[in-house]
């Protein structure tokens, strides 16, 4: 059983804020498949640090504006 | 569908189909006699060859259809590579189990039939379960850590 990630993200909201950028557009800009963008958005895959920075760079925001960590309460 | 996922489907279906054909041919040839005395070499080689040929053919079909979809259809990324590594890891376990089982059978001086068949089964399980692990990783939650 794979542990669910505690990392959440705001990619969907950021895409819409960036002129309704499609998942395919974002995938092209960071050099991954659309399925990988979908998996990241849905929290089914945690990207590498480098890919996380590339995503943040596309939206022109900091890493913590894209990814958030939910620690144990 | 990512190209890695298509390849996993091809590998799983071709291997499972080839082994099913092999078992059916073997049981048909048995004709009431002992299984270990059934002529297995030709069906084994033909089904392995058939599986390889079917995989190559399917790869060509995938390549042609991907060309129509454009450059992005060929793209593989870190997730694809990590899933591929995970599938290899799962598949390798069955190759090791098969090798150990064959070693045990050789030490027990079992017939060539059983040694060859346990190795073939291990290869098939490696391909089928390694591919199933890849497909599961593509569809469900996959965290590489």
TrEMBL record, chain A:
A matching Pfam family: HTH_3
PANTHER family: DNA-BIDING PHAGE PROTEIN (PTHR46558:SF4), TRACRIPTIONAL REGULATORY PROTEIN-RELATED-RELATED (PTHR46558)
InterPro entries: Cro/C1-type_HTH, Lambda_DNA-bd_dom_sf
Lineage: Bacteria, Bacillati, Actinomycetota, Actinomycetes, Nakamurellales
Origin: domain of life: Bacteria
UniProt KW keywords: DNA-binding
Limits of the HTH cro/C1-type domain: 11-66
GO molecular function, one term: DNA binding
Coiled-coil region(s): none
Protein name: Transcriptional regulator, XRE family
TrEMBL record, chain B:
Top-level taxonomic group: Bacteria
Transmembrane segments: 9-28, 40-65, 86-106, 112-133
Keywords associated with the record: Membrane, Transmembrane, Transmembrane helix
Protein's UniProt name: Uncharacterized protein
Origin organism lineage: Bacteria, Bacillati, Actinomycetota, Actinomycetes, Nakamurellales
């Amino acid at each position: 059983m794979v542990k669910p990630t505690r990392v959440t993200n705001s990619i969907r909201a950021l895409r819409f804020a960036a002129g309704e950028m499609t998942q395919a557009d974002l995938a092209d800009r960071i050099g991954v498949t659309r399925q990988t963008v979908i998996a990241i958005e849905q929290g089914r895959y945690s990207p590498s640090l480098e890919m996380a920075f590339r995503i943040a760079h596309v939206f022109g925001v900091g890493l913590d504006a894209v990814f958030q960590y939910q620690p144990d309460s | 569908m990512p190209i890695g996922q298509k390849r996993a489907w091809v590998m799983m279906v071709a291997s499972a189909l080839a082994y099913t054909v092999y078992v059916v041919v073997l049981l048909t040839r048995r004709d009431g006699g002992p299984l270990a005395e059934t002529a297995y070499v030709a069906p084994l080689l033909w089904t392995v060859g058939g599986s390889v040929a079917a995989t190559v053919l399917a790869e060509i079909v995938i390549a042609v259809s991907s060309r129509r979809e454009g450059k992005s259809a060929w793209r593989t990324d870190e997730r694809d590579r990590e899933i591929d590594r995970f599938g290899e890891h799962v598949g390798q376990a069955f190759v090791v189990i098969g090798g150990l089982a064959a070693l045990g059978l050789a030490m027990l001086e079992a017939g060539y039939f059983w040694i060859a068949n346990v190795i073939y089964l291990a290869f098939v399980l490696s391909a089928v379960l390694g591919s199933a692990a890849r497909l599961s990783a593509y569809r469900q939650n996959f965290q590489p850590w």
